[in-house]
Amino acid sequence: NVAHGLAWSYFYGFLNLILPKLGERVKSWDYWEKHPEDRTQTGEDGQKTICQPRILPKLIIVSPQSCHCPDSFTDVDENIVHVGHIPFKASRAGNIDRDYKNSVYKVTDPKTLEVYYAILEFATPILSLYEMEQGAIAGLSTTQKDAQRTMFETKLEEILEHPNNRQCRGQAILLSYRDKPSDDTGHEEVTRLST
Amino acid sequence: NVAHGLAWSYFYGFLNLILPKLGERVKSWDYWEKHPEDRTQTGEDGQKTICQPRILPKLIIVSPQSCHCPDSFTDVDENIVHVGHIPFKASRAGNIDRDYKNSVYKVTDPKTLEVYYAILEFATPILSLYEMEQGAIAGLSTTQKDAQRTMFETKLEEILEHPNNRQCRGQAILLSYRDKPSDDTGHEEVTRLST
Ligand SMILES: Nc1nc(=O)c2ncn([C@@H]3O[C@@H]4COP(=O)(O)O[C@H]5[C@@H](O)[C@H](n6cnc7c(N)ncnc76)O[C@@H]5COP(=O)(O)O[C@@H]3[C@@H]4O)c2[nH]1
Questions:
Q1: Could you tell me one molecular function GO term of this UniProt entry (chains A, B) (predicted)?
Q2: I need a labelling partner for A31 at 20 to 30 A (CA). Which of A5, A70, B50, B126 fits?
């Protein structure tokens, strides 16, 4: 089954590598020192204090219903802006020091102007499903693509919950994103999760 | 089918990105200027001349029969040593400036001491098959793993030969490597290809 293979490869080839110590890497990320302005709060009395960075130390994996995954979350919502990467390297299958860094985005709530950070990505294997259907040579119909996406999400949840994968449990959140018809709930979901 | 999904995702998510301009990136790789000693030939008269770097400007994808893919080719053959990377970045599915660089190895023929360069990797999805079987929670038996590897190789050859994929044709070589029982033909294959 295409979806099952993609879910297992996403787990063994990526999530199982980066999730176990993600929380520690978020804590020791050097961005916080270089950008104190991002964490400065001004009190009622005009006093400035530096607060804890408001970041959910987990990987938020967004699975869009259309399977269409733009290059950047800013293409989905201009309130979500890329600010940096949490670094991670590992040599794997002959690729020396392969880069597995995660992208960090700054999310601004347009109503309150409050700022949050989130480690975001679309589920890249879902983009493969989209391209398999669009490219028209893989023989994947639109109905099959939708079915495979649902199977992928179910399988991935199962894998991340498995007792053998304790080191990954609770380190990632799979967010199903209803982007058809186009609706702007994306940033609200992320903001809700980050608070 | 697991193997088909892995082959299509390997194509759309990696090969289709890096193969089209690989030859140009190999030519303009800055390693050649920084390491002239690697291309210096000493003539009969003791005269030194700088020659063209002996590199096959193609991606050599090694598919081991056991599906076991070590982290580095040096683990397979000490005559194959990592010397650098051909850089390539692309933003994809929310991952900004994702690194898709290729590892370059220096291959020394132990008999003639001649040196060649090769862009090598194990077929990463094959490692996923290995881990799916080893991990024992994916439900992939050894027989199924072997069958899936063969299907993956066949599908990949087909995809790379497809008339719609002209931009990738001839840019990669799939090398089936009989590593069971363990035999040392690996480096000879690479040397033979590189000459
Ligand atoms: N040799 C090699 N070098 C690369 O840079 C690379 N990038 C991808 N691939 C292989 O191509 C195919 C498609 O990749 P995709 O990104 O859709 O899925 C990837 C992706 O969803 C996730 N993943 C892997 N590396 C990263 C990464 N650096 N950032 C984000 N996600 C990643 O985990 C899946 C499986 O990865 P691999 O098991 O390494 O093999 C992949 C896969 O077979 C690569 N292969």
A1: cyclic-di-GMP binding
A2: A70
As to burial, measured by CB atoms within 10 angstroms (0-12 exposed, 13-18 middle, 19+ buried), residue A43 is exposed
Decide if A124 and B93 are in contact by the 8 Å CB cutoff: yes
Q: Residue B146 corresponds to which tokens in the numbers above? A: 């072997």
Q: For chain A, what percentages of helix, strand and coil (3-state, to nearest 5) are there?
A: 40, 25, 35
Of A73, A91, A135, the CB nearest to B94: A73
The string of pLDDT tens digits covering residues B24-49 is 999 999 998 888 877 777 777 888 88
Low-confidence ranges of chain B (pLDDT < 50): 182-184
Helices (H), chain A: 2-10, 16-18, 22-27, 31-34, 124-135, 142-161, 186-194
The token duo for B178 is 């009989």
Pair A75, A40: CB distance under 8 Å: no
Q: Cα–Cα–Cα angle for B67, B69, B73, nearest 5°?
A: 140
